[in-house]
Structures are given as structure tokens and as C-alpha cells.
Write a structure and sequence with these properties.
The protein is α+β, with helices and mostly antiparallel strands and 319 residues long. The chain is built from 5 helices and 12 strands. A hairpin with a 4-residue loop joins strand 11 and strand 12. Helix 2 runs antiparallel to helix 5. 30% of the residues are buried.
Length: 319
């Protein structure tokens, strides 16, 4: 007996608006999943007193993403605090490339527990060798004098800008098929650049870059987690700022770039699930090193964090 089939008319097909809505809903669900993966990535395993272990997530680089190591190291340090103190600064050095295939062990040294400040030192280890070191300081909540000289740049609001993911999807046909999936994967940090760079044909421009970023899902009120995710996100775009005057980008096979050190100062409370403006600049580069610095503002113009980084920047051809 012939199988009966129900005819599908044009009226049964979704409209373009409905299709776009379903695509948006699927994208939001996927993004929420990546956010949960980031939270789990930062949830380190305790393996011994002052020893913690973290896993890795491949975002498309040659080695472990530096922001991941900073965020995990900060969580490891926070796990050793006996009272609720907030991170006010961290200073880190990247010593060796991280191996994506191996977990990272974080060893925390309890340097000092003072009346107002706590100091921790963290070493990240793979294959018996240190790949990263960090000193972090934590401060008991305290009221004091306040001022702010820096003003937030006048930029369009995030709602008026394309996301980095949308921009990358438009470039899909220009991406090597071997790395296309990684290049186009959703990230747990939603980024909306102010003046996007064409990664495949960058024109030389002033070493100034601005973007909005946030976690596109409501998080809890654990400020340590918010600090760790900001530290994670702060390594996404800063190094590339120093490439702008030279018309270079990370996708150029002649470019070898890597973070050398990274420092963050946390000034005021903030939430990473709300839009933050990352205002970056590279005052100078020389001796194959690029010096980059940035300020992070809330939408209402409060300066909540400052970042400095020096990175290795080599070009294998004459510029």
C-alpha cells in the first residue's frame, strides 16, 4: 500500500521573519551554552591544599588562550581566601605556550594575610614546568576618597553595532576550511567592535581600538566570578591594537604574536553581564615588543578597570 504523504503548501512554510526569529532563538540558546561552558571552565578542581586543576577550551589559537589561564589563576587564588575580599590588582607573566591537550595545575602560595590586604602568588604548571606566574592582591571592602579624571570615549551604543560573530560569519568564504569551524564558533563573550578591522586586508591606522563586550546571560552576584571573567575577556583584543599601524592581523601567516605579561587594576564594582566599553591604545612598539593599555567603562561612564599588556610582535617580512 502506498505511503500517504501530507502535502505542504506555501502557507505552511515559515515566513522570513519567523525563520529569522527561530535562527535568533537557536543562536541565543547556543550562546547560553557557551557561557555555561566558560563558568564550568573556571570552576577548578581542588586536588590538594593550595593545588587546583583546570581544563582547556580551544578557541582557535596555537596554544592555550592566555585569558583562560589568567581567569583560572585568579579563581585558584580566590579559593584560598579565608574571608570575602575583592581583587584590586593582578600582575601576570606568560612563560611558555600552554599545551591544549594537557590540564593545567595551579599552585597557590599564601604570601600574606593582612588586616586590609591579602597577597597570593600563583604558578600554572604543565608537564612539570611553569607556563605562567601571577601575583594578585585582594582588599577588604573599604570606603575612601574618590575621583575620576578619565572620560569614556564618545562611541555608538552597542545596540547600533554588529557583533563580532556576525562580522566573522560574513567573512566565512575567506577563511581556510581547516580552521573555519573554530573561527566561526560562538564565544561566551559577546563583542561589538566600534570600527571593525578587515582581518584579511587590514589598512594601517592609528593604534586605537574600542569595543563593547558582555556575557550575554545573567550571572549571579559572585563578584569573584565577574572579576575572573573580565580578566578572561581582557586578553581578547588588546594585543592586536599594536598591529593596527602596521596593517597586520592575527590571520597573517607572517605574524608571530603572543602576550608576554598582563596586568589589571579593578577600581569600582561592575557586572560582566552588562555592557562594558573596552577602550584600547598602543602608545609604542619596538624591539619586537608592543606596549598596549586600556580602560574599561560601564555604560554610564564609570571607570571600573585598567589593563596593561606587553606582547611579542614579530613580522617575518620587511614592513
Amino acid at each position: 500500500m502506498a505511503e500517504s504523504r501530507q502535502k505542504v503548501s506555501a502557507q505552511d512554510l515559515p515566513t522570513q521573519q519567523q525563520a529569522d526569529s527561530m535562527s535568533t532563538q537557536q543562536s541565543q540558546a547556543n550562546q547560553e551554552h557557551t557561557v555555561q561552558e566558560l563558568v564550568e571552565l573556571l570552576n577548578l578542581e581542588t586536588i590538594e591544599h593550595n593545588l587546583f586543576r583546570g581544563q582547556n577550551c580551544d578557541i582557535g589559537g596555537r596554544s592555550v588562550f592566555g585569558g583562560q589561564v589568567i581567569g583560572q589563576a585568579l579563581i585558584a587564588a580566590l579559593r584560598t581566601l579565608d574571608e570575602n575580599r575583592l581583587t584590586h590588582s593582578l600582575h601576570a607573566y606568560f612563560l611558555r605556550p600552554g599545551d591544549m591537550r594537557a590540564p593545567i595545575v595551579y599552585e597557590v602560595a599564601r604570601i600574606r594575610d593582612g588586616g586590609s590586604f591579602t597577597t597570593r602568588s600563583v604558578i600554572a604548571i604543565q608537564h612539570g614546568e611553569a607556563i605562567f606566574s601571577m601575583s594578585a592582591s585582594f582588599h577588604r571592602a573599604e570606603k575612601g576618597l574618590e575621583h575620576q579624571l578619565s572620560q569614556m570615549p564618545d562611541v555608538p551604543p552597542p545596540e547600533n553595532l554588529e557583533s563580532e560573530h556576525q562580522i566573522r560569519c560574513r567573512m566565512a568564504n575567506r577563511i581556510d576550511e581547516r580552521v573555519r569551524a573554530l573561527f566561526l564558533q560562538l564565544r561566551p563573550i559577546e563583542i561589538r567592535p566600534i570600527d571593525p578591522v578587515d582581518l584579511f586586508n587590514p589598512e594601517p591606522r592609528d593604534p586605537i581600538k574600542q569595543l563593547w563586550f558582555r556575557v550575554p546571560q545573567t550571572l549571579g552576584d559572585n563578584r569573584g566570578l565577574h572579576h575572573a571573567i573580565l580578566a578572561y575577556a581582557s586578553d581578547f583584543a588588546l594585543l592586536g591594537t599594536g598591529m593596527l599601524p602596521h596593517g597586520l592581523s592575527f590571520v597573517d601567516p607572517n605574524v608571530h604574536a603572543a602576550s608576554i605579561d598582563h596586568a589589571i587594576w579593578f577600581h569600582q564594582p561592575f557586572r560582566v553581564d552588562e555592557w562594558l566599553l573596552y577602550a584600547m591604545e598602543s602608545p609604542c612598539a619596538g624591539q619586537a615588543r608592543s606596549y598596549n593599555r586600556a580602560q574599561i567603562f560601564t555604560r554610564d561612564g564609570r571607570l571600573v578597570a585598567s589593563v596593561c599588556q606587553e606582547g611579542l610582535m614579530r613580522a617575518r617580512r620587511r614592513i
